[in-house]
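Posting for a labmate who doesn't have an account.
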Amino acid sequence: MKRLYLIGGTMGVGKTSVCQLLKSKTHNAVFLDGDWCWDANPFQVTDETKRMVTDNICFLLNSFLHCSAYQNIIFCWVMHEQDIIDGILSRLDLTECDVKAISLICRKDALTKRLEKDIEAGIRNKDVLYRSVERLPLYNLLNTQKIDVSDLSIEETSEKIMKL
């Protein structure tokens, strides 16, 4: 049986880092970051670009699910609304697949500290702080397993995910 990890969380919570480690710790694993399917300049959010990114994500995830080389498919994206998760899952062939829908959550102070570090390093723009903090409460409304990463290392977080 294949396993599909859907890992959501607000910007800066540590999704990509956790997923990269999870990929290295699981057998026959492949990782897709939803942001890779929508890396554009300028970044434009329209109905057309939203459809395009979802099409891209679903195409790649189905390709991984159908490929015999992969047992563990790891996907992360912001996924702050249940409709996003449900929309993606409804378009996937989940035959003989165990889906683990997970939201990484954290306290506001922990998220602020992480994002300020990234902003100072030039990795992120300042406006991400407000947008990311604003989305934090939305994850509590989702039908996902929650992992509070406020005081967890990337290693500890990946271990918790692997035990689910």
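Reply:
Got it, the structure tokens are right above this. The chain has a mean pLDDT of 96.
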